[in-house]
Amino acid sequence: MEFNPTGPEADRIQTWWKNGGSSTSLAAMSISGSAGGAGRNAKEVSLTELRQIAQTLPENPETYKVTARLGQIQTTKQGQKQPLSYMACSAPREGTQLMCNKRVDETGKCPVCGSMGKAVARLNTRCRFVDYADSVWCTTFHEGAEVLLGMSGDEIHALEQTDGADVEDTIKQKYYQGTPFQLTIRAKTDIYQGEAK
């Protein structure tokens, strides 16, 4: 760390500080998500630490913050194209303001609530995030995926309907670009086919 540096950048910052920068209020870069502010008290960790935590299989859901860059989005699985969007039911859940969000069938019918209402494009992407020491694959749901891609679910769905190559070219431009993202990640133990994961 260098104290009282000299040079044009240091002069510009000192001038800004003296001309009111010291009293400027700061704006939050993140938006509180739908998880009820679960990330507010989250512990900051690296991806390496997150991997170690996941291996201990915590019994209760725990929330962590990680600063990382988008390294890749999975577009194929076992040689088959993996869609980034799906059509979801937009009918409100009973007793709430939230949408049903369940995948509708090819006729537009929701298998859960039976609605034949308007379906909306939602994103569900599998992303590889990278920091200075490690990388991890995480599922990123609609709101977070829209921020990562800088596109809406409707825009991605429209690209997928025309030509999958357009989607691939568009999202590759997002890899390792811009500023890193602060991710809120929830780790919890699930039982899958009798095995804790």
Task: Note down, in words, how this protein is organized.
The protein is α+β, with helices and mostly antiparallel strands and 197 residues long. It has five helices and ten strands. Strands 1, 2, 5, 6, 7 and 8 form a six-stranded mixed beta sheet that branches. A two-stranded antiparallel ribbon has the order 3-4. About 6% of the residues have low confidence.
How do the strands and helices of this protein lay out in sequence?
Elements lengths: L7 H11 L24 E2 L2 H9 L6 E12 L2 E2 L2 E2 L3 E5 L29 E12 L4 E7 H8 L3 H10 L1 H9 L8 E7 L3 E2 L2 E2 L1
Parallel strand pairs: 1-2
Antiparallel strand pairs: 2-6, 2-8, 3-4, 5-6, 6-7, 9-10
Helix pairs in contact: 4-5
Order of helices and strands: HEHEEEEEEHHHEEE
User: Strand count, sense and closure of the main sheet?
Assistant: 6 strands, mixed
**Oligomeric form:** single chain
Shape label:
globular
Low-confidence stretches: 26-36
* Euclidean distance between termini CA atoms: 42 Å
Question: Which tags fit this structure?
Answer:
197 residues, six-stranded mixed beta sheet, 5 helices
